Hints:
Helix 1 (12-24) links the parallel strand 1 and strand 2 (29-33). The protein has 14 helices and 19 strands. Strands 8-7-15-16-17-14-18 form a seven-stranded mixed beta sheet. It has two domains: 2-54 and 61-80 and 196-249 and 320-372, Rossmann fold, CATH 3.40.50; 97-180, no CATH class. It has 373 residues and is an alpha/beta fold. The structure holds flavin-adenine dinucleotide and uridine-5'-diphosphate. The site of uridine-5'-diphosphate has 13 residues, from helix 6 and helix 7. Flavin-adenine dinucleotide (FAD) binds next to helix 1, strand 2, helix 13 and helix 14. It comes from Thermus antranikianii.
Amino acid sequence: MKVDYLIVGAGFTGATLAERIARELDKKVLVVDRRLHMGGNAYDEYDEHGVLVHRYGPHIFHTQSKKVWDYLSRFTEWRPYYHRVRAVVEGKEIPLPFSLASLRRLFSERLADLLEEKLIAHFGYGARISILKLKEVQDPDLRFLADYVYKNVFEGYTLKQWGLKPEELSPSVTARVPILVSYDERYFQDTYQAMPKEGYTALFRRMLAHPNIRVLLGADWKEVEGEVRFDRLIFTGPMDEFFGYLHGPLPYRSLRFAFEHHQRPWFQEVGTVNYPNDHGFTRITEFKHLTHQAYLPHTTVVYEYPEAYEPGKNEPYYPVPREENEERLALYQKEAAKLKTVLFAGRLGDYRYYNMDQAVARALKLFEEVARG
Ligand code: FAD
Ligand code: UDP
């Protein structure tokens, strides 16, 4: 078999590149994925109770990029959805990101008033500050707040999720969940926030339904390598695996997902409840809040238990953003640069903590380079 492009991985990165190359360049593309389905980690399916669940953890679409939004809108209609998250702190469920509303759930009116006033005076109403930045503040009352939020919201969760403290990771990791000097109770603040109306898998089916695209599922790249001839390869799996761990493994963090079905309409009040300080899991998500199934009389939730990544045993869900890993990544990037017909992209291929929209943006950018030749 001969194709123009062989793309390894049918997630957002692989599907976007396949669609663009097949449609715009009129080239023959074969997409292979070792899983038995397309969609990568965004794959969704109906469980045995008829609840639409995300097999690899909750996926909520949000972006600031009109380009990405417009592109994906060719393959799906949307349902507006503003994700809401709470964290259990000292037995109370507080809004997350930590905001002025969270202050009021935890502290006396007098203390909350004082901290609100100081936060606004210091940063301005509407500001978003990372916890590591807030910890640098000198004012004693804001120091108290920073230490409190660090200890009760970030430290335990981060230790569970990564096996590391917040300051041992790139500051960009904890900055994903800023402290909000406002009463905004949405988890994300992006312009576009929505869920694909018929789910992610339906979106992927439309993306890949082109006469120039063939999709081969349940096939590892290693198995097809000798069978298929191709001009160019786009690899969206783990870069270190591609090179046979030549420079040692790039660290990843994995998760175990535990699904539970309950014979009652709702399990919790919001989409996700985080448990920074108790239990072995980090968060519980109830899918019905995210999807279009509020009418169901029963519900399914998922618990996320972080664990070490072991190749062959579990999945490399998260690259670990920290300096020493960048050094190893640079060695692999050097290897990649030597290969003129192989391109790497995606959360695993670039070893970058991309959200879905960032994976699509990266793929669209790479497509432009491919199209220029
Ligand atoms: P992937 O989706 O990982 O796809 C890569 C594919 O390559 C996989 O299907 C894999 O099977 C295949 N593959 C790898 N190696 C090989 C090989 N050797 N041979 C054949 N196939 C191979 N993003 C958001 O925007 N919002 C969210 O709410 C959100 N929640 C998330 C929650 C969790 C728990 C996780 C883990 C991620 C979340 N993300 C979220 C991020 C999102 O999953 C990624 O941005 C997106 O899936 C990246 O797409 P990708 O195509 O680069 O990688
Ligand atoms: N985080 C935290 N406590 C929380 C939520 C997030 O400490 O209650 C930190 C933690 O380090 C986490 C990071 O912020 O890994 C990013 O959180 P996000 O919800 O964006 O993680 P993801 O959805 O990608 O797993």
